[in-house]
Amino acid sequence: MACENNLVVKQIIDLYSQISNLESLKPSKNVDTLFGQLVSTCLPTDTDIDVTKIHDEKVKDMRSHLIKLCGEAEGYLEQYFSTIIGSFEDNPLNHLHIFPYYNNYLKLSKLEFDLLAQHTSHVPTKIAFIGSGPMPLTSIVLAKFHLPNTTIHNFDIDSQANTLASNLVSRDPDLSERMIFHTTDVLNAKEGLDQYDVVFLAALVGMDKESKVKAIEHLEKHMAPGAVLMLRSAHGLRAFLYPIVDSCDLKGFEVLSIFHPSDDVVNSVVIARKLGGSSEAGSSQIERCVIMPCNCSKIHAIMNSRGMKKSMIEEFSAIE
Ligand SMILES: C[S@@+](CC[C@H](N)C(=O)[O-])C[C@H]1O[C@@H](n2cnc3c(N)ncnc32)[C@H](O)[C@@H]1O
């Protein structure tokens, strides 16, 4: 059945028309309800919906506009809660649980940390997070719970986002030292990008394929050979909320793995390594993988050891 006739897609189109008619995307009962319904409509993973196979131009245009609306609303939501949490007299980091999606970030950051640990042999000393936002929860969770000796440089195009974010960590004796903020468009960040062991690229940096690839190409040009790039993508219905990063978008990188969660962590995670690193073994595999066509991935459906429902992990290796 054509995807656009799918009942769930029809529900998404209906929610899109309500959201796109909203006066404002700033948090309110109505905005929260609509986006809550949208997220829960897009969460199920037991569908065979592949947005890349949608041919109806209207649905394709709807999807690209909906992704932008979601990004705008996410920015307002972070701004709103960062202002509230930052206004506490004591350490604002004691109140992060007030943010409605805090638990999702705890799970997403743990997932990203686990993938990082699986593919790197040493603890990163310096990480860059591109698109950190007014609520830099990924950086905060990584620094607080997983990487106690790592410095995280947060880059955001929006100076107000950085003002709110640095206020959040300013009264924390540890993170006020290890969280640094830079206001710049990623495309203008050149010097120094080669000093990071790991670079994260937020889902909202590059809201369409063209700008996402532009950001990736820029990072490929300035990152150190062998450094790791962590990106966020989307799979199935969740690709109505966030842009997809394909292995083909990552020229100059070895794609190590793509993880599609099946719980309420919305984003898929992509981990890649910039070519030209030192490990011999890796380089031979790197060449094979980069030269191989995009479908060089083998999809393994695995029962996740943590008892989650079947998740999807794509390990990249040369086709036998
Ligand atoms: C809302 S945050 C989401 C990230 C989330 N706070 C986290 O911890 O994973 C995404 C941020 O990306 C920033 N952004 C978008 N495009 C960018 C660009 N080209 N360069 C730098 N930052 C960008 C936006 O200003 C926004 O604050």
UniProtKB/TrEMBL annotation:
<comment type="function">
    <text>Synthesizes nicotianamine, a polyamine which serves as a sensor for the physiological iron status within the plant, and/or might be involved in the transport of iron.</text>
</comment>
<dbReference type="Pfam" id="PF03059">
    <property type="entry name" value="NAS"/>
</dbReference>
<dbReference type="GO" id="GO:0030418">
    <property type="term" value="P:nicotianamine biosynthetic process"/>
</dbReference>
<keyword id="KW-0949">S-adenosyl-L-methionine</keyword>
<dbReference type="GO" id="GO:0030410">
    <property type="term" value="F:nicotianamine synthase activity"/>
</dbReference>
<protein>
    <recommendedName>
        <fullName>Nicotianamine synthase</fullName>
        <ecNumber>2.5.1.43</ecNumber>
    </recommendedName>
</protein>
<keyword id="KW-0808">Transferase</keyword>
<dbReference type="GO" id="GO:0010233">
    <property type="term" value="P:phloem transport"/>
</dbReference>
<dbReference type="InterPro" id="IPR029063">
    <property type="entry name" value="SAM-dependent_MTases_sf"/>
</dbReference>
<comment type="similarity">
    <text>Belongs to the nicotianamine synthase (NAS)-like family.</text>
</comment>
<dbReference type="GO" id="GO:0009860">
    <property type="term" value="P:pollen tube growth"/>
</dbReference>
<dbReference type="InterPro" id="IPR004298">
    <property type="entry name" value="Nicotian_synth"/>
</dbReference>
<dbReference type="GO" id="GO:0009555">
    <property type="term" value="P:pollen development"/>
</dbReference>
